[in-house]
Amino acid sequence: QSWWRGMSYCLHSESHLDTGPIYVRENGKLHVVNQGAGGVQNVTPKTRPFSLFSRSFSVELCMNGEDDRARRQRTDHFIFTYTKEGNLRYSAKSLFSLVLGYISDNVDHIDSLIGFPEQIAEKLFSAAEARQKFTEPVTGLRALQKFTEAYGSLVLCSLCLRNRYLVISEKLEEIKSFRELTCLDLSCCKLGDEHELLEHLTKEALSSVQRLLLKDNSLSDVGLRRMTAPVRVLKKGLENLLVLDLSCNPKITDVGIGYLLSFKKLNCLDISGTGLKDVDAVIKRLQRQIGLVHSKVPLKEFDHSNCKTEGWAEQTVLQWEQAVMEAMKPQDNLRSRAAALRFYGKTHRIEEVVKCTLVEPETKASGNLQFYKEKVQNCHLPLKKEVAGSHKLKNNKKRALAEQERERTSKQKHLCLTVEDWDLLNTY
């Protein structure tokens, strides 16, 4: 057993090293070597704790943002699932998913998306929306503009901001970035004549608007004059408007209705609750000049049921509203302080969200003033009758043109372009 004597010599020569117990198997039996005695014992191995580090050794766990992001990126590359047996199983994500996630994290650095496939762009928009990239103050606007410049109505074709005046004030630039909208609902927002969003309505980016709801917005004849100036003079702006709701704006008078006559394509109009003086004259004027007939019953186009937000950015608008509502929630200390002030009579102000009702007292007082354009139906009458009636139509047209000319000369100061109109148009 020369090998055994060699091992004993090695153990005695390096006895200063604490290598722990050493086990040797010989003839089918397990032996433990005691370094102190240098002998071999035929015993059953006992579990002996073996310390890898000394007692004075300590470990400090340090984590920073970069390590956390790196760890998240490593875990984002895999999809973790559980089997039926409860075992954890992971599979690698596709290269497309990894690239999509990386670009959505840095979507504000994209130079342009013009010419990029729409199917991939929609997935990219959804990925960035899930990360709430469009709610960020500066980078969100820059990223949203890249999508709206390239895809227009696909990002948003209909926008409903009814009663959401807080969203308009907080996200005005983002709202102005939307292009090619066909429906815009700004009801009950109290915008007034001087609001920047009303000026934006006359821009070329919103010339595609066909349905515009401006109910209860404190509008007057001045606001209508500014809103219709591009259409009346330059034949631009809201020239494709089909449905217009101006109800519950008591400052709109007969003069303001005259500015609406430039909307030749208008099919439905609601001016209930306005400050009209001669209602019968206005009804006749609308029917004679743009073919709108007074409706005896409320029209479905103005019940606010068909207007909703539609497009890729539908969830983005909801995120804006949630962020605004979270910011408006009073803190606990401020809430208790306000309650104490009310209890001691220091304040009598009750802050409540202003809600717009669909039926206003002004509307009930003035009655239903909704107008629609009768559709021209194909007439199957004999040709002679049509020819006979054509003379009457010509005479009626002549009389209508003569009356229109008299109205134009008598109210020239309201319909002609003034100095203020030119100053306004120069700003567009």
Automatic annotation (TrEMBL):
* Any Pfam family matching the protein: LRR_6
In terms of InterPro entries, this protein maps to: Leu-rich_rpt, LRR_dom_sf, LRRC42
Keywords assigned by UniProt, alphabetized: Leucine-rich repeat, Repeat
Q: Would the keyword Repeat be found if you checked this record's keyword annotation?
A: yes
The superkingdom of the source organism is Eukaryota
This protein's record includes keyword Zinc: no
For this chain, the family text in UniProt reads: Belongs to the LRRC42 family.
Mind telling me what this protein is named? Leucine-rich repeat-containing protein 42
Q: Which organism is it from?
A: Origma solitaria
